[in-house]
Amino acid sequence: MINHEFRYASHPQDAEMYSTEELREHFLIEKIFSEDDINLTYSMYDRYIVGGAMPVSKALKLETIPYLKSENFLDRRELGVINVGGKGKVTVDGEVYELSKKEALYVGKESKEVIFEAVDGEQPLFYINSAPAHHKYPNKKVGKEDAEVIQLGEEKYANKRILNKLLVNSIVETCQLQMGLTELLPGNVWNTMPAHTHSRRMEAYFYFDLEEGQTISHFMGQPDNTRHIFMKSHQAVLSPEWSIHSGCGTSNYAFIWGMAGENLDYGDMDFCAPDELL
């Protein structure tokens, strides 16, 4: 079954007036995974789609949704998939790609059939991002050994982390979609600090591998007028182009960042020093 919802974009001045409930309603995606379902959220931020597929007792086919007005889901889109569960496989137009945990797959425009399945009795959790595409690039699996790995942060600032670039233009050709995975080391809790914005791209964060009973406070908003959203593991949050996107957990965790917009320049960021945030 495919469940879907629609989110409008928000003006930053409007977002400043949102209550806690309204902030969560507009930006938080609470249910990414449910058994034998594909859950999708279509956002007006660069028409980005965030979702997840959890095949348990059957294979799940990625069908089109009403907002796309297309016969197939990928007629005018590209797709990124990162597995955050047990081993699984994704079949694209008859070609099978096995994905272990933290491995990724890029699926290009005009692919007709995408099917998600479990393998060897394990429970995969396929996290999905999709963006409009103007060109068909080849499908490509990006395993752990293929990632571009960067060490970031310092323990004294509680933000030591490992950034794995997976679906980025130095590894795989895409139209505008970029995805990667960041892991906080034990004892470290802050991500994306110093914070930044990038007015040429929106972003979505998906948090996982958070210890049960713990929480993450995700910070958003303009640098001089910030807000926060408390989140659980396996939840995602939309980040507009005008917003910072940073977080702090009550334990360490991992998260997936996905982006779409006007360019593929990973370093195109406008930084804000920690002591400048309000």
TrEMBL record:
Alphabetically ordered keywords of this record: Isomerase, Metal-binding, Zinc
EC number(s)? 5.3.1.17
* Molecular function terms, GO-annotated: 4-deoxy-L-threo-5-hexosulose-uronate ketol-isomerase activity; zinc ion binding
Can you tell which superkingdom this protein's organism belongs to? Bacteria
Cofactor binding annotation: Binds 1 zinc ion per subunit.
List GO BP terms, alphabetically: D-galacturonate catabolic process; D-glucuronate catabolic process; pectin catabolic process
The family database entries (InterPro entries) matched by this protein are listed as:
KduI, KduI/IolB_isomerase, KduI_N, RmlC-like_jellyroll, RmlC_Cupin_sf
Enzyme class, UniProt record, top EC level:
isomerase
Q: Which family does it belong to?
A: Belongs to the KduI family.
Which named protein is this? 4-deoxy-L-threo-5-hexosulose-uronate ketol-isomerase
Query: What is the native source organism of this protein?
Result: Pustulibacterium marinum
Tell me the organism's taxonomic lineage. Answer: Bacteria, Pseudomonadati, Bacteroidota, Flavobacteriia, Flavobacteriales
